[in-house]
Specification:
This protein is mostly helical. The chain has five helices and no strands. It starts with a helix and ends with a helix.
């Protein structure tokens, strides 16, 4: 009986700790960024969702990644990852900053597809014909374009 009471007390303390942590955790806005998706109502179907300024120069790895991105990703995610309204989200957006979606998230998305969770474009299917190395270079390209647009 005493073990049961100790177990119940430990569970209650753990539950209170989780609730306290959730209540005290900063919101995305307090943490310095917003994960809010942009309003796309005024953007024509297929139009770029965000304005992207390409970097003045890309690393060798990013240039390889750009070729892969243009061949396999741009059809849906738009030129330079600006997104396409009604089709796919922009990858040059705070939602995809490294601290929220690391490079491994790009790899998993390409290999397995992704259930829609931030945007209302539907699920992303796996990308046929890309290797893990291809996605590594593509992620390098996306990260360099993100940095050029103030997303670290």
């Amino acid at each position: 009986m005493q073990r049961f009471l100790i177990f119940m007390a430990a569970g209650a303390i753990a539950g209170a700790g989780v609730l306290g942590w959730q209540a005290l955790r900063p919101t995305p806005e307090q943490a310095g960024h917003s994960m809010a998706t942009p309003d796309t109502a005024s953007i024509p179907e297929g139009g770029a969702i965000v304005e992207v300024t390409p970097p003045a120069e890309l690393s060798v790895e990013a240039r390889i990644g750009k070729r892969g991105f243009d061949a396999k990703c741009a059809e849906c995610h738009g030129k330079n990852g600006a997104g396409k309204n009604g089709e796919a989200p922009p990858l040059i957006h705070k939602i995809y900053e490294p601290s929220h979606h690391g490079d491994a998230a790009f790899l998993r998305a390409a290999e397995n597809g992704v259930r829609a969770h931030h945007w209302d474009f539907g699920n992303m299917p796996p990308v046929e014909g890309v290797t893990r190395a291809d996605v590594t270079y593509i992620a390098r390209y996306i990260r360099e374009v993100q940095r050029a647009n103030g997303i670290d």
